[in-house]
Amino acid sequence: MTLVQLQSRSVSTHPVHGTVVDVMDAAGPQVWYDMPVEVALSVMAAAHAEYLVVCDEDARCVGLVTHAQLAAVQDSCGYTDRIRLSDITDGSGPFVSPSATRAEAEDAMPYGRLGPVPVVDEHGSALGVLTLSR
């Protein structure tokens, strides 16, 4: 899969009343889910990215991985160079709808979940990333 950099949207002055589209960041680098962890770490370093959006063969978002997640996998005792992003992302989310408000997105997140969350359309395509913090 070719890496894609989307244009960032400006932050709205009224994010509470708007949708996540008003406050989301660009999706950033999108990579194929069959990519080895070592290659993903290299892509992340080259792109100076904090996370990678992981997509399947149909370009649907199946998750998002951070440098910390990839480093933890690489440092684990069971790590081999055969571990792929598909082994650590299961496609179960969390994901955010572009029509959700920021408050709705935060309320829907599992307790304690912080950090970037993919914003996906009805077809599963990544539109951007919402960074949640509580």
UniProtKB/TrEMBL annotation:
The CBS domain is annotated at 23-70, 94-133
Taken from the record, one Pfam family name reads CBS
Q: List the CDD domains.
A: CBS_pair_SF (cd02205)
The protein depicted here goes by the name: CBS domain-containing protein
Source organism of the structure: Streptomyces pharetrae CZA14
Write the lineage as a comma-separated list.
Bacteria, Bacillati, Actinomycetota, Actinomycetes, Kitasatosporales
